[in-house]
């Protein structure tokens, strides 16, 4: 992954470089191994997950009807497993001062756990104080509908440290009750 110009790095990038290595290890967060520079470009070396995004996995495995809430069938266990992974990952990030302002199935990477089973890992997160800058960038890019949480459409406040957890808990809990 190529990152911003290192001669004039943004505040977010500087913080990321200084602090991502200090983030405690967690199996639900994509691992960062370090940084290297080649030909004036700084690269972030991260764990490679060859299976793609959770969204792609769910589309291939279950069809688009599950992604858009049109299915009448019971929710597959895979969805609940991924929801539990997201809750664990978001809780871990929040406890360590990081957030994921653009959480979506496109920003979760599908993997197989060390123990038998499926899992997903979070990537592309930032530290709390840069979340507004990150959300503004998403709006300017025109990808608002695809990658920002839906609450961003109605509120000028884009982040609450508990918002993601509560939303994922509600989805998981309400689906498990059916």
TrEMBL record:
Transmembrane segments: none annotated. Residues 1-178 form the Protein kinase domain. It comes from the Eukaryota. One of its GO terms (molecular function) is protein kinase activity. InterPro entries: Kinase-like_dom_sf, Prot_kinase_dom, Ser-Thr/Tyr_kinase_cat_dom. This is Protein kinase domain-containing protein. It comes from Stichopus japonicus (Sea cucumber).
